């Protein structure tokens, strides 16, 4: 078992501050009882599980095989059958299409270039049914500046987590340190700011762009949510 695979088992602790119900409430107006959903960059499957518990047909995809293993175990613990796939969201091929595709929690910001994002949009478009919906979020310039110097620390009964973020130009560098007894794990990853005004949505109609789960977008909003509809 390599270090990253061990780190995957702390994923839900690292992201425990996320309020998944906000995303769930945001996307439900675009869902029907018969909707088929694909959650890209699904992580440990929490959002997919919440959707399944509400009787939606949902599947998940993530680049990390270790995280997908955890997602499958969590679904099994909840007595749910959810297909989870290992794949790159910029170039995935599942030989099926969906009514709705989601990609949340800054996952688009893991893509470094505009070309990477266009590859994501292209892959999504190929996997959407006619008039299908793509919903995603990115962080704003406000959040980019707020995370110029940011540290989060928390102690658990068995381990501790320290998460430090620093900013350089349009890049956020995240360094996560986990200690459990003599075991020390370190993970570093990067996120990249993308200006929503210059993203190209060819092949889609823009249904909504809003901030922080509100109805409009303000300069001070930290998270930008985008709803696109595939042009049939």
Shape: globular
Main sheet strand line-up:
3-2-1-4-5-11-10
How many strands appear in the DSSP assignment? 11
Percent strand: 35-45%
* Mean of pLDDT: 92
Major β-sheet profile = 7 strands, mixed
* Separation of the first and last Cα atoms: 46 Å
Number of helices: 7
Low-confidence stretches: none
Radius of gyration: 18 Å
Going by helix content, strand content and strand pairing, the class is alpha/beta
Descriptive report:
- The chain has 232 residues and is of the alpha/beta class.
- The strands form two sheets. The protein has a seven-stranded mixed sheet. Strands 6-7-8-9 form a four-stranded antiparallel sheet.
- The protein has seven helices and eleven strands.
- Helix 3 (20-27) crosses helix 4.
- The chain is globular and about 55 Å long.
- The model has no long low-confidence stretch (mean pLDDT 92).
- Strand 7 and strand 8 (171-180) form a beta hairpin.
- Helix content is 25%, strand content 36%.
Please give the structural blueprint.
Blueprint: H1 3-8, H2 11-14, H3 20-27, E1 36-40, H4 46-53, E2 57-62, H5 65-77, E3 84-86, E4 98-103, H6 114-126, E5 128-139, H7 141-146, E6 149-155, E7 160-168, E8 171-180, E9 183-192, E10 204-211, E11 223-230
Parallel strand pairs: 1-2, 1-4, 2-3, 4-5
Antiparallel strand pairs: 5-11, 6-7, 7-8, 8-9, 10-11
Key words describing this protein structure:
alpha/beta; globular; 7 helices; 232 residues; seven-stranded mixed β-sheet
Summarize the structure.
The protein is α/β, with parallel strands linked by helices and 232 residues long. Helix content is 25%, strand content 36%.
